């Protein structure tokens, strides 16, 4: 899952981003509305964690821009205001969820994960394919009831492959969905991660290379 965190409080933004990365999400961070508009113009995000009271371009205007783009990106607004009218207004302009600061980290994570599942055709929280089960909420993977200990990036890549439901996923798409904006487009990170992921999943191999196209998860 790829997430954009838009928050002008630097310490809070960094803390939220690091927590989401620990949950194997690819996270970009920016601190104002103008930069947020630039990010959403060139990248596809599953979820945007959006501070409402941003300097420059207001969070409401960023939310409207996301909605106007016609994308399936989900927006959760953060605000220090607990006023009911503010929450109603935020939801009224298109936000999918609303969370008041200060908030419990576990609640924010759960809400982001729930919105991520809605950013695409509805899928269960536990994905199953080719004898593999991936529990997004618990961050656990089993193959034939054997626990598989994956790194954050390996988990993210496997999740993208499983969500594709048998379709071929290109290396470019994996970079877009499992890495952040700082990744080198010419990196061999996908190939290296795929190699270690295959080794950990064991035999028989279920991740197949489709020559010249990408990768496919199947029996």
What report would you give on this structure?
The protein starts with a strand and ends with a strand. The protein folds into two domains: 117 residues, Rossmann fold (3-Layer(aba) Sandwich); 92 residues, Winged helix-like DNA-binding domain superfamily/Winged helix DNA-binding domain (Arc Repressor Mutant, subunit A, Orthogonal Bundle). It has a five-stranded parallel β-sheet with strand order 2-1-3-4-5, sandwiched between helices. A four-stranded antiparallel β-sheet has the order 6-7-8-9, with helices on one face. A two-stranded antiparallel ribbon has the order 10-11. The protein is built from eight helices and eleven strands. It has 219 residues and is α/β, with parallel strands linked by helices. Keywords: DNA-binding, Phosphoprotein. This is Response regulator transcription factor.
How would you summarize what this structure contains?
With about 220 residues, the chain is an alpha/beta fold. It has helices at about 10-20, 35-40, 60-70, 85-90, 105-120, 150-165, 170-180, 190-200, and strands spanning about 1-5, 25-30, 45-50, 75-80, 95-100, 125-130, 130-135, 140-145, 145-150, 205-210, 215. Helix 2 (about 35-40) runs parallel beside helix 3 and helix 6 (about 150-165) packs across helix 8 (about 190-200).
Topology, pairings included?
Layout: E1 2-6, H1 10-22, E2 26-30, H2 33-42, E3 47-51, H3 59-68, E4 74-79, H4 84-92, E5 97-100, H5 105-118, E6 126-129, E7 132-135, E8 140-143, E9 146-148, H6 152-163, H7 171-178, H8 189-201, E10 207-210, E11 214-217
Parallel strand pairs: 1-2, 1-3, 3-4, 4-5
Antiparallel strand pairs: 6-7, 7-8, 8-9, 10-11
Domain Response regulatory: 2-116
Modified residues (4-aspartylphosphate): 51
Keywords: DNA-binding, Phosphoprotein
């Amino acid at each position: 899952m790829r997430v954009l965190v838009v928050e002008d409080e630097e310490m809070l933004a960094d803390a939220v981003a690091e927590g989401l990365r620990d949950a194997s999400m690819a996270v970009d961070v920016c601190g104002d509305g103008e930069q947020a508009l630039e990010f959403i113009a060139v990248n596809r995000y599953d979820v945007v964690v959006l501070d409402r009271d941003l300097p420059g371009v207001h969070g409401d205007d960023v939310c409207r821009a996301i909605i106007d783009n016609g994308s399936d990106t989900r927006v959760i607004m953060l605000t220090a205001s607990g006023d009911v009218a503010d929450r109603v207004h935020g939801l009224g302009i298109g936000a999918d969820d609303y969370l008041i600061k200060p908030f419990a980290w576990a609640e924010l994570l759960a809400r982001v994960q729930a919105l991520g599942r809605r950013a695409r055709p509805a899928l269960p929280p536990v994905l199953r394919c080719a004898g593999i089960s991936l529990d997004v909420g618990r961050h656990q993977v089993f193959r034939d009831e054997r626990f598989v200990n994956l790194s954050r990036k390996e988990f993210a890549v496997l999740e993208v492959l499983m969500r594709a439901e048998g379709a071929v996923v290109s290396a470019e798409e994996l970079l877009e969905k499992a890495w952040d904006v700082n990744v080198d487009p010419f990196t061999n990170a996908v190939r290296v991660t795929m190699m270690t992921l295959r080794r950990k999943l064991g035999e028989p191999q279920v991740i197949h290379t489709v020559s010249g196209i990408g990768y496919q998860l199947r029996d």
